[in-house]
Amino acid sequence: MNISLLCIGNELLAGKTLNTNASWIGKRLNGHGCNIGEHLVVPDKKKSITSGLDYLISHDPDCIIITGGLGPTSDDITRPTIFEYVGTDSKFDSEYWEHLSKKFKQFDMDIPDSNRNQALVPEKGEIIDNPIGSARGLKFHLNDRQILFVLPGVPSEMKAMVEASIIPWVRVNVNGSFYIKNLRTTGIPESALIEEISGPISSDHGCDIGYYPSILGVDIRLSSKDQTKLDELSSNIRSILSDKIYCDGTDDIEDIIVHEAIKKKKTISIAESCTGGLLGHRITNVPGSSKIFKGCHVVYSNQAKIDLLGVNHRTIDAYGAVSIKVAQEMAIKVKNIFSTDYGLSITGIAGPEGGTKEKPVGLIYIGLSDKNKTEIRKYKFSSNRANNKSKTSQVALDWLRHKLIND
Amino acid sequence: MNISLLCIGNELLAGKTLNTNASWIGKRLNGHGCNIGEHLVVPDKKKSITSGLDYLISHDPDCIIITGGLGPTSDDITRPTIFEYVGTDSKFDSEYWEHLSKKFKQFDMDIPDSNRNQALVPEKGEIIDNPIGSARGLKFHLNDRQILFVLPGVPSEMKAMVEASIIPWVRVNVNGSFYIKNLRTTGIPESALIEEISGPISSDHGCDIGYYPSILGVDIRLSSKDQTKLDELSSNIRSILSDKIYCDGTDDIEDIIVHEAIKKKKTISIAESCTGGLLGHRITNVPGSSKIFKGCHVVYSNQAKIDLLGVNHRTIDAYGAVSIKVAQEMAIKVKNIFSTDYGLSITGIAGPEGGTKEKPVGLIYIGLSDKNKTEIRKYKFSSNRANNKSKTSQVALDWLRHKLIND
Q: What's the ipTM?
């Protein structure tokens, strides 16, 4: 199925907003056997929207998806522009207006009159529910074959609506079956990964393979119309990469950890220094994490490490706060304080300041303690503070994942 | 000056590569008084490139910038396609070929024959130097007025060439200066914000205004060729929105907090429950935060609130963990434990589970304690866990910002 994308918004053209919507939609629909043929970004201007639509339609896609411009303000002109373009009158949905007004009341606010346009619905055409926001979407049949979807530009709302309304429609309308497998890896760079699996990927496997690297790891996406071939390639890759693959779906490492810990009735506590709360944040992003996550000490200063965790000040004096010994004490102490099965600790230098010749920016020690032993791992990342925090959280969580799975 | 952008590459359409080039070019040229009128992404296909160019040219921009498809591999077809489009023959640049061959030799490699196309230059048209890579760019006069630039898609090379060749050309060709002001707001929805500033924005102010909402707030971007008019509008908006504007540049709230706290020699500690470490994470994203941030307790369970913070178990029994009283005790206790000037506390129900009729998902209490008093604020957000965590962190940090500025 050929799909074209029309993103509406001055903020995209001015570079104020990175167009993550377009790449997300591309990736998501690609995974369902769709091909994004063209993708056009135009300003919030009636003439630009209509001429953009004309252009995209002239390339004969099966479906066009529009994002953006469904908000309540005067520069959100997508709704009336599309109503005119497809030739439909609109009516006011009083029931939805009531619903919106109530929502605002919950926040002790009167609903502004400008929100009224969000209650306008087309005479010809369908409404697409927005499960998390006030801007509902639209669906039109341009002719016998071509479909037009209109979605808001707010990423979380757009994504929820693609999942709930567009993917099911694509599933029904893509010819023939299409199978996908997503193997999420971490701890191995893309080039090394491709070298490791060069055997299976250079064989006559009959699948499409895509690599999607990010700072947290590389996702391998396999797709094929032949399920047997897909399973065979996937299992060949899996036998090589083994537990460098943490998931064959869409879960993050923190999801795996929380689910595994709940299953095995294990509890977790964390003492983090240079990551500043990022590990706790990631674990608590997972619904249900309160069952297994008992708490986290962000001990950002030496004194906090001593006073709150009970790290021995002599250890800090002798070895420094960023050291094997301190990581070790932190992991043991936090495990004991929260009475958990595992204690995870992090101490390091996130940068960009604070490094020395012996202990450069990017030096990180991670400790993991259970009832039997306490182990320490050492890493040396880059000079970029944000990247160091992200990478550290990923290797620490991946270690904990291994531990949980093998325990 | 009106500029259109044509990005060529299958990887952009499939969502494998996030189109950071487009937003970077948009931002960079916007800052020099250029307006990006449209931006089109097409696959590495001759027909798509030429019809895309036709479309963009029909909107009459002063300049078109193409990125991508100048590499040495067989799917890099931009160069021959453009030569044909503008109607020029090409010749082989032996001198550049020599230069490229030498470069490869430096890395002990023989230059592959496929690189020969990178030494092709047009008979009519100019070459743009690539200071850091092998793919040089192209510049053509489409007619008396319209200019076409062609650049490689590798971000570092594209950026170097925009800086070295396109920005200087823009400076000469944009008439007059161009001024920008960015006002970052939080705590007020876009529609309500626009209603509040309806006076100044509907006056004859002679500026362009853009609104850029996100889950954390709304940025207002003002631009004009007349600095006096820009300053006047900005100051009129500022007098209405007052301290709902947290920054008139690009800083986040956590940046403001850290800089203000360093300036005033104030220290901060945090006790967070449902945000799980996100506040600590945000504060520690700011380089230098260790000077003022003493630590954070992520007390995710009732027991941790009692054992680690010293919250009275009777308070929890009587009022529940998500209550004014517990938020109050948490703020006071964490301030005392870390001996800081401010103690910030958060307790709430992030969801999607855990809500009751009296205490629904999205209910949050925030406490802020200093040496004089402890105040509590109550919020009711949505049912979305990730959004609740983000919004809670933003209102809490914004409150702390107010406190710091007024202290």
A: 0.76
